[in-house]
Amino acid sequence: MLAKLPDLPYGYDGLAISISEETMRIHHTKHHQAYVDKLNVALDKLAEKPDDLQELLSNLDDIPENLRQIIRNNGGGHFNHSQFWQVMSSNGGGQPSGDLAKMIDSNFGSFQAFVDCFSESALGLFGSGWVWLMTDGNILTTPNQDNPIMTGQTAPILGLDVWEHAYYLDYQNQRDRYVKSWWNVVNWAEVENRYRFAIIS
Ligand code: MN
User: How far does residue 152's CA lie from ligand 1's centre (Å)?
Assistant: First the structure.
């Protein structure tokens, strides 16, 4: 497996109502690219070459100790960002429908209550990390580039990057303004696809 920086499904200015072109360009071509590059250096040193990143990250204990943390950080960074770009869209925002809407309503009472709860988790997360919506409706946070799959859980269906590099140029210290604006670019159709795939598999 050779990690590769995925193309964005929109232009760098595609999310400009929420995230500036400059932030998107740096986030994708510098931050994400660096995770990819460092992951490839580490993968190259593995005696047994993995063919699936999700499986590799789900079994970190199997990785030799001298490479484990590097792969955790940079493999996690590659995995998390690859999903992050997909769950946003230049035609995003609004609300989910179908089974996902039902799941959210039954867990939170309403879409707005879910948004409030997820946003509160994002604001409450100290330092750098991610906020996740799980298939069962749980909201989790992880530090650094960790992902719930690293602790034996299923892959999240939605994640929000709350590292300062994701918003500092646009919002400086005001993470609350970033999070509030981010809902306008969430690609609910993609999150729904991930939810449907998760519940049938
Ligand atoms: Mn990031």
Answer: 23
Q: What is the residue-averaged pLDDT of the chain?
A: 97
Average pLDDT estimate for 116-129: 98
State in Å: Cα 155 to ligand 1 middle: 18
Q: What is the C-alpha separation between 61 and 168, in angstroms, rounded? A: 34
Compute, in angstroms, the gap from residue 77 CA to the centroid of ligand 1.
7
Distance 31 CA to ligand 1 centre (A): 7
Q: Using pLDDT thresholds of 50, 70 and 90, give the confidence band for residue 118.
A: very high
Distance 160 CA to ligand 1 centre (A): 9
Estimate the share of the chain in helix, then strand, then coil, as percent rounded to the nearest 5. 55, 10, 35
The neighbouring-strand residues paired with 130 are 142, 161
pLDDT value at residue 1:
87
Q: What's the CA gap between 156 and 20, in Å, rounded?
A: 25
Task: Give alpha helix (H) positions in the chain.
Answer: 21-26, 33-44, 53-58, 65-86, 98-108, 111-124, 168-171, 175-182, 188-200
Q: How far is the CA of 66 from the centre of ligand 1 (A)?
A: 24
